[in-house]
Write a structure and sequence with these properties.
The protein is mainly α and 366 residues long. 69% of the residues lie in helices and 3% in strands. A two-stranded antiparallel ribbon has the order 1-2. A two-stranded antiparallel ribbon has the order 3-4. The chain is globular and about 60 Å long. It starts with a strand and ends with a helix.
Length: 366
């Protein structure tokens, strides 16, 4: 890893200077394949839940609206299912072998979304009211717990040695994901968080589950641990690139594309990468930002801040270099992820598809 010295003794990684070109049609086809192949099994798993949890989960996944009527909602990007199917192919197995892994990872991912929305107070996801807003906090908690249980059930009922190995990887990734969420919440109450602490948190919160997604299909297909571990390296750094882009969208994203409020992460006092990098940069904008954020933490009327006040904080983050640094970090993590693929013996068309998905992550707008 190449680095340059940041302020306060921190090491700030460097990055390639340009985003990769993306074959949008090819990536869309990969995502759609993952969604199409995994959704019937995902729906069958959700149908096992007792009422009203089955209905609440169906609403969360966009299959019904708030009144229980069939809907064609936005079910998310489906990056993880796509990775799980490609993972199986990387091991020389058919993509269908990865379906239980794709479903299990998607269940864990949505367990985390249900709980995160409640903890963060997010009222919108995918352009709709969140589950806790529609069905109440208790249902959000219960359905999230149920999805996590279903994830392990889906894998273990396969009854194979490979399923046991896959379940161990999933439970480890889930524990790291929860660690990351705990770190994220704790950082909201601290005046200063280092770049390294932020990267560790985001590696847990996002990198761990993407790492699992891109290894779990290979494990189910009989891959050895060395192959699975190397695929996890790709997924982990892909997750860091993914989260860096999310952090940019959490401040400067278009609400029409993201489905979240303007300045979403600033409203939640998140110590995301742009904020942390800006605070570490030094200089007048950095110092002024630090003063404002310290005052915000003690403010009793933070929730009533105007759009202009959040816009001013975003402008200071950008002036201090936090936006540019985070964009560069996303590209650097992308490069590390793609390099890891060279250490895995796999069909070349599968390698190309994994590279295409990595390219998509760093240029997406939602």
């Amino acid at each position: 890893m190449r680095t340059t010295s940041g302020t306060r003794g921190e090491k700030v990684p460097t990055a390639p200077s340009a985003n990769p070109a993306v074959d949008t049609a090819a990536v869309t086809a990969l995502l759609e394949r993952g969604r199409t192949m995994s959704t019937p099994v995902l729906r069958a798993a959700v149908d096992r839940l007792a009422p009203p949890m089955d209905t609440v989960a169906a609403y969360h996944f966009g299959w019904i609206d708030a009144h229980g009527r069939p809907a064609d909602g936005d079910g998310g990007k489906a990056v993880r299912p796509a990775l799980a199917l490609l993972s199986a192919e990387a091991a020389g197995a058919a993509p269908e072998v990865g379906i239980p892994g794709a479903v299990a990872v998607e269940l864990v991912h949505n367990f985390s979304l249900l709980h995160d929305d409640l903890m963060d107070g997010d009222e919108q996801r995918r352009h709709r009211d969140t589950v806790w807003k529609v069905h109440g906090p208790a249902q959000a908690i219960l359905v999230g717990d149920a999805l996590f249980a279903l994830a392990n059930e889906i894998l273990l009922e396969l009854g194979t040695v490979e399923a046991g190995r896959a379940t161990r990887r999933l439970t480890t990734a889930t524990r790291k994901l929860i660690d990351g969420q705990a770190q994220d919440i704790s950082y909201e109450h601290r005046e200063r968080v280092t770049v390294d602490e932020c990267l560790e948190m985001e590696g847990n919160k996002t990198g761990a589950l993407l790492a699992c997604a891109v290894s779990i299909g290979a494990v189910l297909g009989g891959a050895d641990d060395r192959t699975a571990d190397t695929l996890e390296t790709y997924g982990y750094h892909l997750g860091l690139a993914f989260q860096a882009v999310d952090d940019l969208l959490g401040i400067w994203g278009d609400p029409e594309a993201t489905g979240k409020q303007t300045w979403s992460d600033l409203r939640q006092r998140k110590k995301s990468l742009p904020v942390v990098a800006a605070l570490a940069a030094g200089g007048p904008a950095s110092e002024r930002l630090g003063e404002l954020l310290a005052a915000d933490a003690k403010s009793n009327d933070f929730d009533s801040f105007s759009e202009e006040e959040f816009a001013a904080r975003a402008a200071l983050i950008e002036e201090a270099g936090g936006r540019d640094w985070t964009s560069q970090e996303a590209r650097r993590q992308h490069a590390v992820a793609v390099e890891a693929l060279e250490r895995v013996d796999m069909p070349e068309h599968v390698r190309a598809q994994l590279v295409a998905l990595a390219d998509f992550v760093v240029v997406r707008k939602r």
